[in-house]
Amino acid sequence: MSWSETRSPPPLLFRRHSSGDPKNFASVSSSLLPAFGTVVDENHLQRKKYVIAPYDYRYRWWQTFLVVLVVYSAWASPFELAFKKAVTGSLMVVDLVVDAFFAADIVLTFFVAYLDKSTYLLVADHDKIAKRYVTRLWFTMDVASTLPFQFIYRILTGKMQTGDVFGFLNLLRLWRLRRVSELFKRLEKDIRFSYFMTRLSKLICVTLFAVHSAGCFYYWLAIHHHNSENTWIGSQVHDFKHRSIWLGYTYSIYWSIVTLTTVGYGDLHAVNTGEKLFNMIYMLFNISLTAYIIGNMTNLIVHSAVRTFFMRDAINKILRYASKNGLPEGLKEQMLAHMQLKFKTAELQQDEVLEDLPKAIRSSISQHLFRETVKNAYLFQGVSDDLIAQLVSEMKAEYFPPKVEIILQNEIPTDFYILVSGAVDVLVFKNGSDQTLSKLGSADMAGEIGVMFNIPQPFTVRTKRLSQVVRISHNHLKQVLQADHEDGKKIISNYIGYLKSLKHDMLEELPFLTELLSDMNIQLTAMNEEPQNPEASNSQKDADVTGVPGVPEPSSPSLSIMPIRVIIHGHHPDTTTTEGDTVGKLIHLPGSIDDLFKLAEKKFGKRGSTILMADGSQVEEIDALRENDQLYIF
């Protein structure tokens, strides 16, 4: 058996969950962050015996159980002060059991590691833990709030004492309320629980405790007044001291709630001076409590409605802008529709959700959402998974409302789109109106013709209904293809196949396309001819896509599937020619000098042997040519 099999598992504090573990976020929310440059020894706590990590789930459950007992203590302490008869009954047994649990927690605290504020690391040394706990106020208060003074007095004297001294000593148990505060702080940061409900629960607890405590103290004032009839409850309930405990408690809570809510029916009111003073203090306290509750509730409500406020404000700004600049009604409606859709889909937008995440997580999310959509697009069918992964990692998802232009005719081609859902129309402005050429649906592409040919977008693309698209940058596509020749050839092949399948109406809007496809067929035919010698056979493996426009040889330092356009002339640059030949012919640059000579022969009807630039310099390498170069072939 290997060492890895025999060693004990690390404590929960240092255990690392996989990304698929649903408890991973809970572990992160309770992790300790060491200072920068501090080396963390993950086996430190593992080597220490009888040391409890403060974030061990078992210790957390123990603390949660104690909070339940704290709730009881918070109710029982004021109640037992006001109603002494309850102390001698069953509540004493419950108090002793509760105190026993908190006594056990005191002992347990001597074994709980603590966080060093200077290094933000856990200290697991028993001596340091004990010294820190004993020398702080917490130990003294924990002991004082746990000792059952009344029970100890009974054991020592054999008498049952119900005096006020023990009632006030029992109020020391309210020290335990700090555990409730710590619990709410932790729950507010725990994303498994609703922040709104956590804050609301905290406000309710504060209010209930204030009502309960004030009612009990007010009843205590009544039973200690020398004339029981001259009290707030004595004037309503005769001989109330000998009546039922729960009758007195009901009257007390009723008065406390009526006073807290400032209703003031007047049926229960202060009679003597002591009660009037207590009423004044309680009402001043109520002002602060009410302000605290209203402030918190306002904050919660405003926080939930802040997005609506920003949306209405943005819409008002759009309306003012459109009115000031005299924008047409149709354009104004598009602007409003886009703004409304932006706020409706804000929770689904990648940029806001993913901007603070590491790149690896963003890439994994994009792969999960869009990988299949990209693989189904015609341009990327048959390409490698690596290429798909690189493309998807940088994609941007967008929503477009109905009847909004995604692409405008004749705009500069910088991106093309894959339709994830929805439907769009491909339009062309002709004879003074928009004419529909085709309709696109899920997994179809838009804008790729302008990008691939590096020409202004030939068509307008407009949504028919709510549509989601992913946007691919022209520059990013070129970058990912620079070192991947096989995928470049496959994309070119898919693209040529798509161009050949275009409808007649679309081909009419692209007059250069028919001639270009014919040129591509000539080049591909020449490229696929059987070589006549061994050298040609060996070089064929490296030049099998040489004739494809825009795909250079594998030795080229850069790879681009975008065709390079040049203008060719069939004469010497210094030769005077007719007007028709002065213009030249615009072609897509083939992959080799020999293919360029063949293409020029087809255009001008004669075979050339020399290629010159406009300045007279001779062209020797095809890779040296750039977009819109003037070439003279003769």
Describe this structure in words.
The structure is a single chain. This protein is α+β, with helices and mostly antiparallel strands and 634 residues long. It is 52% helix and 10% strand. It has 25 helices and 14 strands. It has a 4-stranded antiparallel β-sheet. It has a 4-stranded antiparallel β-sheet with strand order 4-9-6-7, with no helix packed on it. β6 and β7 (433-440) form a beta hairpin. 21% of the residues are buried. Its main location: membrane.
Radius of gyration: 41 Å
Q: Could you tell me the strand content as a percent range?
A: 5-15%
Q: Report the mean per-residue pLDDT as an integer.
A: 79
What separation lies between the terminal Cα atoms?
81 Å
Overall structural class, as computed from helix and strand content, comes to: alpha+beta
Give the biggest beta sheet: 4 strands, antiparallel
Shape: elongated
What is the spatial order of strands in the main beta sheet?
3-10-5-8
| Uncertain residue ranges | 1-31, 526-561
Helical percentage: 40-55%
* Count of individual beta strands: 14
Number of helices: 25
Membrane topology: Multi-pass membrane protein
Domain KHA: 565-634
GO molecular function, one term: voltage-gated potassium channel activity
Organism: Acer negundo
Provide the fold topology.
Blueprint: H1 3-6, H2 24-29, H3 44-47, H4 57-82, H5 90-109, E1 114-116, E2 121-123, H6 126-134, H7 137-146, H8 149-157, H9 164-170, H10 177-189, H11 195-223, H12 245-260, H13 273-325, H14 329-344, H15 350-354, H16 359-376, H17 385-393, E3 396-400, E4 405-407, E5 415-421, E6 424-430, E7 433-440, E8 445-446, H18 448-453, E9 460-463, E10 467-473, H19 474-481, H20 485-500, H21 504-508, H22 511-527, H23 534-540, E11 565-569, H24 579-583, E12 585-588, H25 593-604, E13 611-612, E14 630-633
Parallel strand pairs: 11-14
Antiparallel strand pairs: 1-2, 3-10, 4-9, 5-8, 5-10, 6-7, 6-9, 11-12, 13-14
Helix pairs in contact: 4-5, 4-9, 4-10, 4-11, 5-7, 10-11, 11-12, 11-13, 13-14, 16-17
